[in-house]
Prior knowledge:
This protein has 346 residues and is of the alpha/beta class. It folds into three domains: 4-97, Elongation Factor Tu (Ef-tu), domain 3, CATH 2.40.30.10; 114-239, Rossmann fold (3-Layer(aba) Sandwich), CATH 3.40.50; 257-342, Roll (Ubiquitin-like (UB roll)). The chain contains seven helices and 19 strands. The protein has helices at 79-86, 123-135, 157-166, 192-202, 215-227, 277-283, 319-323; strands at residues 4-16, 19-25, 41-48, 51-58, 67-73, 93-97, 114-119, 142-148, 171-177, 186-187, 208-213, 235-239, 257-262, 265-270, 301-306, 309-311, 326-328, 332-334, 338-342. The strands form four sheets. The chain has a six-stranded antiparallel beta sheet, covered by helices on one side. Strands 10-9-8-7-11-12 form a six-stranded parallel beta sheet, sandwiched between helices. It starts with a strand and ends with a strand. The relative contact order is 0.12. The mean pLDDT is 93.
Amino acid sequence: MPSFHSLRVSGIDRASVDAVVISLEVPESLKESYKFIPGQYVSLETTIDEVLVRRSYSLCSTPDEPSLRVGVKKLDQGVFSTYINETLKLGDALKVSVPEGRFVYDADKNEGGLLAIAAGSGITPIFSILNSFLANKNGQEFTLIYGNKSPEQTMFYQEIKDLETKHSEQLTVHWVFSQSSEEGALFGRINPSVINFVLNQQNRLPDHSFLCGPEPMIISSSEQLERKGASKDRIYFELFTASSKTVEVEDQAEKGRFTITCDEITHTLDLVPDKSLLDIALGAKLEVPYSCQGGVCSSCIAKVKQGKASMITNQILTDDEIEEGLVLSCQAIAQSESIHLDYDDV
């Protein structure tokens, strides 16, 4: 299970009118634990109004920076994001998981030119990937398509503008605004016509593509890249909200025994109808890994060692991984009256 440590907030900087970037100080004794690959995320945990709240946020810093940095955009009725934007103070402590996640840029594996497509706060992991890519000084091109409502609501607007100037031979940014007409920017939303425009300007396909933002944008962008000839296995994406693609799990178990192994300890519980395996475990106050509880992150992956379960939604695990028995436990519903879920064997 991912470890959590208490880290001190060493910086709170405004990233846009409705978002901040918080810096988290990592003690020398924990530096090794908090090494990460650009694109990964951490889970933050604190108590708000006497309720323990946990959320996942992508790291926007690069691995060689001394502090961890995460960008948090305030959401309507967002308990945690509102707390971070309005209440959190310098010197406060947050529980922070070690970095995890599969949406990563590895300079050795992802050779060649990159295309990144981001909307809103989807820029946070892309910002880490962008800065890491430029720091490698490999001479390859990085193209960014970045959609927002207006410059004022754009996270890292000035920082990216500065990178455009500093790395003009490597970096090309296509700004897209849906509520503001700006010189040199496209008006509207990121859609297939925008991607066509960018690819036609480049006159070549990217070697790798990284997409982050709302599900409709990711789906339409992925499909358009594939139509233009991009290889599906070189298109990587991460959702920032729960997927709308859900299925009803048939033949759900109404009762039975639920065995959980986590951190080499085995627990036995009763199955609960219409509850995910993660919800049952959390309802029993078990310490098992989780974060978003919406099938967006990968914190709660576990293996079904015995029995059967199906997921309501899945945008993370591959077909081969599902065949091996892996599930997102926050989305998995038991279909047999005896099931064994192992968080250690993943």
